[in-house]
Amino acid sequence: QVQLQESGGGSVQAGGSLRLSCAASGDEYRDAGCMGWFRQAPGKERERVAHIYLAVGSAYYTDSVKDRFTISRDNAKNTLDLQMNSLKPEDTAMYYCAAGPTLCAQQGAYKYWGQGTQVTVSS
User: Fold this and answer.
1) In whole angstroms, what is the distance from residue 89 CA to residue 122 CA?
2) From CA 30, how far away is CA 39, in angstroms rounded?
3) Sign of the CA dihedral 86, 90, 92, 95?
4) 8 closest CA partner among 108, 80, 104
5) pLDDT digits over 76-107, tens only?
6) What torsion, rounded to 10 degrees, do the Cα atoms 115, 96, 72, 108 define?
7) C-beta neighbour count of 117 within 10 angstroms
8) 12 falls in which pLDDT band (50, 70, 90)?
9) pLDDT tens digit sequence for 33-44
Protein backbone atom coordinates (compact mmCIF):
# COMPACT_ATOMS: atom_id res chain seq x y z
CA GLN A 1 0.00 0.00 0.00
CA VAL A 2 0.95 3.60 -0.57
CA GLN A 3 -0.25 6.45 1.58
CA LEU A 4 -0.33 9.96 0.19
CA GLN A 5 -1.03 13.06 2.26
CA GLU A 6 -1.36 16.51 0.71
CA SER A 7 -0.75 19.80 2.47
CA GLY A 8 -0.26 23.45 1.63
CA GLY A 9 -3.63 24.41 0.24
CA GLY A 10 -5.39 27.59 1.24
CA SER A 11 -6.88 30.84 0.05
CA VAL A 12 -4.94 33.41 -1.91
CA GLN A 13 -5.65 36.41 -4.10
CA ALA A 14 -5.14 36.28 -7.84
CA GLY A 15 -1.48 36.67 -8.71
CA GLY A 16 -0.36 35.02 -5.50
CA SER A 17 1.52 31.79 -4.90
CA LEU A 18 1.03 28.55 -3.02
CA ARG A 19 3.20 25.48 -2.62
CA LEU A 20 1.51 22.11 -2.28
CA SER A 21 3.33 19.15 -0.84
CA CYS A 22 2.50 15.46 -0.90
CA ALA A 23 4.10 13.14 1.64
CA ALA A 24 4.38 9.58 0.41
CA SER A 25 4.88 6.43 2.43
CA GLY A 26 4.43 2.70 2.08
CA ASP A 27 6.44 -0.17 0.70
CA GLU A 28 4.94 -0.01 -2.79
CA TYR A 29 5.69 3.70 -3.11
CA ARG A 30 9.21 2.93 -4.25
CA ASP A 31 7.83 0.97 -7.22
CA ALA A 32 5.78 3.91 -8.48
CA GLY A 33 6.65 4.95 -12.01
CA CYS A 34 4.55 8.09 -12.05
CA MET A 35 3.50 10.72 -9.56
CA GLY A 36 1.22 13.58 -10.34
CA TRP A 37 -1.08 16.34 -9.27
CA PHE A 38 -4.71 16.44 -10.31
CA ARG A 39 -7.49 18.89 -9.56
CA GLN A 40 -11.24 18.98 -9.57
CA ALA A 41 -13.33 22.11 -9.52
CA PRO A 42 -17.02 22.04 -8.53
CA GLY A 43 -19.14 20.73 -11.37
CA LYS A 44 -16.14 19.77 -13.46
CA GLU A 45 -14.28 16.57 -14.14
CA ARG A 46 -10.99 15.86 -12.45
CA GLU A 47 -8.07 16.86 -14.66
CA ARG A 48 -4.37 16.12 -14.66
CA VAL A 49 -2.36 19.21 -13.78
CA ALA A 50 1.17 17.90 -13.86
CA HIS A 51 3.08 14.65 -13.50
CA ILE A 52 6.61 13.34 -13.27
CA TYR A 53 7.81 10.20 -15.00
CA LEU A 54 10.07 9.09 -12.18
CA ALA A 55 12.48 6.93 -14.18
CA VAL A 56 13.88 9.90 -16.07
CA GLY A 57 12.52 12.84 -14.10
CA SER A 58 10.63 14.31 -17.03
CA ALA A 59 7.63 16.50 -16.24
CA TYR A 60 4.36 17.20 -18.01
CA TYR A 61 2.06 20.18 -17.51
CA THR A 62 -1.42 20.84 -18.78
CA ASP A 63 -1.46 23.89 -21.04
CA SER A 64 -3.34 26.10 -18.61
CA VAL A 65 -0.60 25.90 -15.96
CA LYS A 66 2.55 25.89 -18.11
CA ASP A 67 5.06 28.54 -17.07
CA ARG A 68 3.16 29.08 -13.80
CA PHE A 69 3.34 25.74 -11.99
CA THR A 70 6.40 23.59 -11.26
CA ILE A 71 6.28 19.97 -10.12
CA SER A 72 9.22 18.50 -8.26
CA ARG A 73 10.10 15.47 -6.23
CA ASP A 74 12.35 15.35 -3.19
CA ASN A 75 13.65 11.80 -2.98
CA ALA A 76 15.27 12.33 0.41
CA LYS A 77 12.01 13.51 1.96
CA ASN A 78 9.70 11.30 -0.13
CA THR A 79 7.62 14.29 -1.11
CA LEU A 80 6.09 15.55 -4.32
CA ASP A 81 5.67 19.30 -4.48
CA LEU A 82 3.72 21.65 -6.73
CA GLN A 83 4.84 25.27 -6.75
CA MET A 84 2.00 27.40 -8.05
CA ASN A 85 2.71 30.99 -9.08
CA SER A 86 0.58 33.68 -10.71
CA LEU A 87 -2.55 31.94 -9.50
CA LYS A 88 -5.84 32.67 -11.21
CA PRO A 89 -9.43 32.26 -10.00
CA GLU A 90 -9.83 29.41 -12.49
CA ASP A 91 -7.16 27.49 -10.56
CA THR A 92 -9.64 27.13 -7.69
CA ALA A 93 -10.16 23.42 -7.08
CA MET A 94 -9.46 20.49 -4.82
CA TYR A 95 -5.94 19.32 -5.60
CA TYR A 96 -5.01 15.65 -5.33
CA CYS A 97 -1.68 13.86 -5.29
CA ALA A 98 -1.54 10.48 -7.00
CA ALA A 99 0.94 7.70 -7.71
CA GLY A 100 0.92 4.81 -10.11
CA PRO A 101 3.20 2.23 -11.70
CA THR A 102 3.11 3.39 -15.31
CA LEU A 103 1.15 5.17 -18.05
CA CYS A 104 1.62 8.58 -16.50
CA ALA A 105 -0.68 10.29 -19.01
CA GLN A 106 -3.68 8.14 -18.10
CA GLN A 107 -5.59 9.23 -15.02
CA GLY A 108 -7.09 5.78 -14.65
CA ALA A 109 -3.63 4.23 -14.31
CA TYR A 110 -2.95 5.95 -10.98
CA LYS A 111 -3.55 3.46 -8.19
CA TYR A 112 -3.03 5.59 -5.12
CA TRP A 113 -4.66 8.90 -4.25
CA GLY A 114 -4.48 11.37 -1.42
CA GLN A 115 -7.49 12.97 0.24
CA GLY A 116 -6.94 16.31 -1.42
CA THR A 117 -6.21 19.87 -0.37
CA GLN A 118 -8.37 22.85 -1.28
CA VAL A 119 -6.97 25.79 -3.22
CA THR A 120 -9.13 28.90 -3.51
CA VAL A 121 -8.05 31.89 -5.58
CA SER A 122 -10.06 35.08 -5.28
CA SER A 123 -10.14 37.87 -7.84
Assistant:
1) 6
2) 24
3) negative
4) 80
5) 888 999 999 999 999 999 999 999 988 888 89
6) 110
7) 21
8) very high
9) 899 999 999 999
